[in-house]
Amino acid sequence: MRAVPSPPACAGTPTAPPTEDGAERDRRSQTRIALGLLLAVWLAFSYPAFLGKARFPVDIANPAPGQEDKPAVNAELGDALYAFYPWHSYLGDRLRSGELPLWDPYRFAGTPFSSDIGTGTFYPPNWLYASGHVLATLTFIALASLLASLLMAFWFLRLLRLHPYAAALGAVVWTFSAFIMTSSTNEHMLGSAVWLPLALGGLEVARNGRLRRGITLTAAALVLSLLGGQVQVTLIVWLATAIWAAVGMATTLAGRDPSGSRNIQSQALAAGAAFVLALGIGAVQLLPTAQFAGQILRQETSLELALRTALPTEQLPTLLLPDYRGSPLDRNYVGPGVNYTATAIYAGILTLPLAALGLFNRPGRPALFFAVLVLLGILCITGTPFYRLILALPGFSRTVFITRFSFLLNVGLAGLAALGLHSLLVEPTRRSAAIMLGPLVAVGVVVVLLAVDRSGTPLPASYIVPRSIRAAVFLVLGGAAVAWLALQPWRAVPAALAVLAVVVVDLWQFGFPYSPYFSPRAAYARTPGVEYLSEVAGPRPRYANLGAYVLAPNAGLQYRLYSIEGYGPLIPRRLVELVSLAEDQIDQATFNFFGPFAPGAFEAPAMDLLGIRTAVAPSDASPRPAGVVAGNAILVDRPTAFPPAFLTSCWEQTTDAGSLDRLRSMSASELRGTAVLSGGRGPGPSPGGDCGSAGDATVERYEPERVVARTQADRNSVLVLTDAWYPGWSVTVDGKPADLLRVDHALRGVALSAGDHLVELRYRPRALMTGATVTALSLLFLVAWALASRRERATSGARRIDVIE
In this structure, are residues 99 and 127 in contact, taking their beta carbons and an 8 Å threshold? Predict the structure, then answer.
């Protein structure tokens, strides 16, 4: 790295080059200043938390008077309230009681909890929810993640030998560009994305000769990204890491990066070992999730379905003017769909010319890598035919949202911008300024044309022009700082800080409002309707929303009330198919929502079979159902609902497809007396004839992972538990192992002989146990490897001492 030139000396005054010690002191001082600036920027984006605010959208659940119809400013805020809050509350409660939550009995008639990667059960930061303070913990984890992203991005860029101020600029753009800022309230997106710089830095450490440390760092980053819980973002992080390894090997092979200290074989070994180790450590989450993925409604994603989420070409101007098609903050967004978050690609107006300078003035391995990320991001988010290749990669065929590849676009621009500022700092020549002048003017001209023409936006000039003027001001200020740096290179520090300040202010104005802070309040209040449902008799009474969501889709998990509804990408396929006998929910459940139900659906026998004891309608429902009014809810009792467990005296064996056809033709009384088996075999031939009740069944214990029922059967029978069947449930009858049957397409059943029996079901998924074993062995290997490395270093040191003596 070249030292920043000193100002001209007076005539006749001798000058001397800085000593090596002086240069090192300068670098340390610059690094401390850069870190201080990063801390200041982080505080600018997070200061409300230090004033007692929570980074959580309580205004959605508890709107201010007169703002009941006010929509959320960020589409991701709904996930924070309706998914992450109840998930983390349940996780914290179970951890606090000394239990690992394996099963969730409150949604979808029961569903795996820890196997659902989105719950983040195995993500270490989420274990802090055991404190019981959900809002405080949620805010802390989000802010810590943003700070970690800043510091890890800075560390990675410094590993590339970039100037500290350039690395700071890259870290700011990396962390506060549109992707992270508009999705940062989506906890598992943030948790999966922030580990990318650590993964890249680990490979760089390995390339520089510290193989074990580099592999360990990369593997840790890949695992944490996986456990963070957003599968598509995790796949993007892993893809970017693989590209970084491939670029390193390609440049070494081409002989264009002779500074690389490892040959191609060692680089391939480091990357391969890191990925394999990450897969091993993450097996405790991977194997159960892979098993769960085979049971959910959403399977392969077609290219046509994926292209529905691509970024339309008319959205591309938002890379320069983020509000060109409006903003949810101003209630005038006119872009595709309702999710502005999925179409935000802004990385700062000054970032673009800086990135152009980095690309053309700093050729080499980093520039090639960041340019590939930019190109890949653009090709993907715009839905070009290239995306067919992405769908062919492992895992991507199950993902949908193409625009999440904007993460790569933002990261690539951040890296190139850092390279651009670095070239200005270490080579502050007029040539560098001239190279940047072209892109700077080009961006300015496009901004002016967008303001004058307004092609592609229906918004008036009164809205677009002020934003264009603001962008032009940022460009002028940035250009002035660059010219100052080129003409007076000895003033590099204030000029570089001026460039950084322009970028920070620009990104803060754009991104800060998308991470709203609120005064802490109860996100899920104990309403009169909730109190009513809590007092419904029985071991496991279920409710369902009628007509509209009176209780949020995952509210049952928060209130510990039982439901067949829920929200999330992993919705069990069999349950949806069973419920669709009453009302077709397949299309809606494909896009993560299951429920609410039309009034007519509750007349279907399938709803009785699932034990829906109470229907919850809004108090202003029209027509108004007959029921108990409790606050904003009308609660309709359903006495026809089946109990949690009952005995049938008849059974039929059929296939999965045949079971749905058979159930469609059965009445409620037939369902009560006849079990339709599509998995396992019943207790011999069905007797036929009068298929009434075969006796009594009483649920004595109903716990998340354990159900105990006592039966009194007067003949051979099938015990039906109206809870979801799933691999991993085992059953004993009178203490002896028995077969768990799949009954009525989606429910659990047990074949019983005549007499009294004690039936116990436990959830102990084999995939989780196998995954935990693989994870433990991988961690033991990692520890042994680290210890062996330490012994090798100690032995090597002792040998050197012997030689000296």
Answer: no
